[in-house]
Amino acid sequence: MITKKPTKIIRTDKWTLNPTAAQRVLIGQTVEVYRRLCRHLVGVIMTHWADLGALSNNELVPAVERLIHQTAKNPNPKYAPIDETFHKFPSYYRRAAIMFAAGQVSSYLTRYRDWQCGQSRNRRDAKPPMFNPSAGCYPALYKGQCYKLHGYDQIEIKVFTGSDWVWTTVQITGLRDRHEVAGNLMLSPSLILNSHSCHLSVPFHCTPAKRKPDGNVTAIDLGINTTATVAVVTHDGTVIHREFIHPGRDIDRRDKRLKSVSMRASKTMGKGGKLHKGFCANTYRKCRNINQQISHIVSKRIVQIAAEFNSEAIVFENLKGWKATGGRRRSNLRQRFHGWLKAMIREFTEMKWREVGGKVIDIVAAYTSKLAYDGSGVVKRDSKNYALAKFSSGKRYSADLNGAQNIAARGIIKLTDRKDREFRSSQSSGRKPRSWACLCDLWTLDSSRLA
Q1: Which candidate, 52, 147, 42, 54, places its Cα nearest to that of 98?
Q2: What is the Rg, in whole angstroms, of the alpha carbon atoms belonging to the chain?
Q3: N or C of the chain: less Cβ packing under 10 Å?
Q4: Dihedral of CA 403/404/408/411: which sign?
């Protein structure tokens, strides 16, 4: 049996730098000369890719250096003018540039082969991918050779003055807390400089500690009326925590902008017509950014709740291919953004929870909100308040909370029972499928759905 190798958990922190005006000029020159070298190297590597493409990373860098860099053992490199143009270029900066250029060439050739064989062509007249050697790259810094860290307040960086390479000390004014986690390994940061800020992009290889969770799960219902409804449920069916997460202010900001798009579109097209490419691009970008902000707020709170109760897993509905079929979201544009928001919340929650060693599972989404958690049958939505579900007994209850509790029950069954149980249909035609389990099935040990 082949054991699947676990995926590495790589997370990136942003460390804000506060360079002086003179240091900012030096950092800008460093980035510029690094990009110039990358453009030269891309051409060299593309020319010799037939020989270089089959080499490993450890073999590729020396092979390219033999083509461009003069040494005592290699007095006549084929591309000597590169070494003359970039005189005294630090070796570790050069090796980082070689790896970046090789990645650019490999990526382009892979995309071009996909285009040739039709894998990436949605249309018969689809154009081939473009080869762009002028990519906006940033230098990777190797510890001891390109940067020296003095505590977490200052960093020495090797920079280019225009004629020589010198060390300069820059103040660190903002960082996060991944460097404080004992199991995290700091990798080579990248030096980022743009018109807005100067910072280090610092990746960490995270190795979470082995957890000893309690017997409960945190279930999430990503609803229409409430962004996320959380229910923490133990294995015996006891609900120990409920919470509604709904950053309404951010959602209103997003929907207000989307409404302005609809108004401008109607004024532009009139009764008929077609919108030009890039119509309201800035507004769409702002709405996507707001969606991302909401996703981070909601996912952060979900992970905090799961950590607070030391949950065994976070349980979501499997919403792949989900489309809104009801509710009060009448606008198709708002529905699309709402669907994208659900996917982002699910993705960000898994990323944050995996970083601390947690597990995320998906369950069958059918009838989680339609079946009453107490086993009384199918519920109906309240005609006056769509957020409420009306039970057969006449009781009114939060529809999203009802769904979250049923999601938790299915997650517990999936964790504690046989792996294939949730996906097997019932052997008896008189029973409902086992994947339709409700919270009440945890209360009754001899329930037919658990048999």
Answers
A1: 42
A2: 28
A3: N
A4: positive
Q: Is 48 helix (H, G, I), strand (E, B) or coil?
A: coil
**Which of 173, 226, 213, 215 is CA-nearest to residue 197?**
173
Q: Are 62 and 99 in contact (CB under 8 A)?
A: no
Q: How many CB atoms lie within 10 A of CB 263?
A: 9
Token code pair at residue 28:
């800008």
What tokens does 24 get? 């900012």
Token pair of 359, please? 């597990």
- Which of 145, 165, 159, 153 lies closest to 24, judged by CA? 159
d(CA 395, CA 405): 16
The segment(s) of the chain belonging to CATH 3.30.420.140 are: 216-268+279-450
User: How far from 31 is each of 91, 131, 254, CA to CA, in Å?
Assistant: 15, 21, 36
* CATH code of the domain made up of 216-268+279-450: 3.30.420.140
Dist CA 220 CA 401 (whole Å)? 9
CB-based contacts of 147: which residues, under 8 Å, 6+ apart? 141, 155, 156, 157, 158, 189
What does the alpha-carbon distance between residue 378 and residue 5 come to, in Å, rounded to a whole number? 43
pLDDT by residue (tens digit) across 53-108? Answer: 999 989 999 999 999 999 999 999 999 999 999 989 999 999 999 999 999 999 99
Number of residues that this document lists for the chain? 451
Cα(78)–Cα(34) distance, rounded to whole angstroms?
21
Predicted confidence (pLDDT) at residue 1 exceeds the cutoff of 50: no
DSSP string, 377-404: -B-EE-SS-TTEEE-TTS-EEEHHHHHH
- CA 347 to mean position of chain CA atoms: 6
DSSP state of 143: B
User: What pLDDT, on a 0 to 100 scale, did the predictor assign at position 429?
Assistant: 43
Strands 360-363, 313-317: pairing is parallel
Instruction: Kindly report, residue by residue over 420-448, the tens digit of the pLDDT.
Output: 444 444 444 444 555 678 888 888 864 54
**How far is 10 from 12, CA to CA, in rounded Å?**
7
Q: What is the DSSP letter of 273?
A: -
Q: Residue holding tokens 């990645």?
A: 103
Contact predicate 335/258, CB 8 Å: no
**At 289, is the secondary structure helix, strand, or coil?**
helix
